[in-house]
Prior knowledge:
Layout (H helix, E strand, L loop, with lengths): L6 E6 L2 E7 L2 E7 L5 H11 L12 E5 L9 H8 L13 H12 L4 E7 L4 E9 L4 E5 L7 H4 L4 E6 L2 H15 L4 H20 L8 E4 L5 H15 L13
Parallel strand pairs: 3-7, 3-8, 4-7, 8-9
Antiparallel strand pairs: 1-2, 5-6
The structure holds adenosine-5'-diphosphate (ADP) and the ligand Nc1ccn([C@@H]2O[C@H](COP(=O)(O)O)[C@@H](O)[C@H]2O)c(=O)n1.
The site of adenosine-5'-diphosphate has 13 residues, from α1 and α5.
Amino acid sequence: MMSDTHLNGAKTNGTNISEVKTPFLIGVAGGTASGKSTVCKRIMQQLGQAEMDHTQRQVVCISQDSFYRDLTPSEKAKADKGMFNFDHPDAFNEMKMLNVLKTILAGQKVTIECYDYRTNALSEKTITIYPADVVLFEGILVFYFQSIRDLFHMKLFVDTDSDTRLARRVPRDIKERGRDLDHVLNQYMTFVKPAFDEFCSPTKKFADVIIPRGADNTVAIDLIVHHIGEILRPGGNANNLTPGP
Length: 245
Ligand SMILES: Nc1ncnc2c1ncn2[C@@H]1O[C@H](COP(=O)(O)OP(=O)(O)O)[C@@H](O)[C@H]1O
Ligand SMILES: Nc1ccn([C@@H]2O[C@H](COP(=O)(O)O)[C@@H](O)[C@H]2O)c(=O)n1
């Protein structure tokens, strides 16, 4: 289904001297454990991309967590005790996010550091994002920063009720992020919940599509995938990609 219709190639005497892809950039926001990553995975699966080698992939997903800023030693000590606010916009490096997304939109390859929740820091592991047709950028605050928000061609908000999100976050953080129950609940009540109400939830208004119940909402995901397919098909409007309002 992926086509080359949105290659912005400069042609001289019929020869393509440069072929630059402008990827279709999709922002996926929502509260913690709302199912953002799972929705992205479903979209990739339905576009037939999830099982592909990452160098061949034409649909890729990037997490906003790769753009947490470095912590000072005293912030690090707080973070280890669950006393640092990772849900506040100041915890992110907006300029780095902006530069990376602009590079991706310019059709260039980028290398992104992966985030390690056990050390509360970027890890040595990196992932290289090759020029792709569709790039999904998911995270709690991807619509918070206007500079970032303005870059998206499509904005999705995964809307899952807070009880469900907490019920998913507790086992996930214990199993996958090396936390204990006290740590998860204290952090949730002190920072995660208030920051969701103050910074994340208000960004729902920027979404083009709100997805109630996340990945359980197969109808919404089918519609979104169909729309992406229409844009990318030969003759679709992918030649004229401009970010949405
Ligand atoms: N529809 C669903 N039904 C059951 N569990 C889900 C569903 N969506 C996500 N999960 C689980 O909830 C946790 C958080 O999901 P994830 O997609 O990683 O959320 P987010 O990216 O928003 O933090 C994971 O353990 C995931 O397997
Ligand atoms: N060192 C960190 C960094 C982030 N968090 C929490 O992760 C949440 C965002 O990730 P989701 O997959 O849940 O969207 C966010 O709510 C932070 O509290 C963390 O606990 N530790």
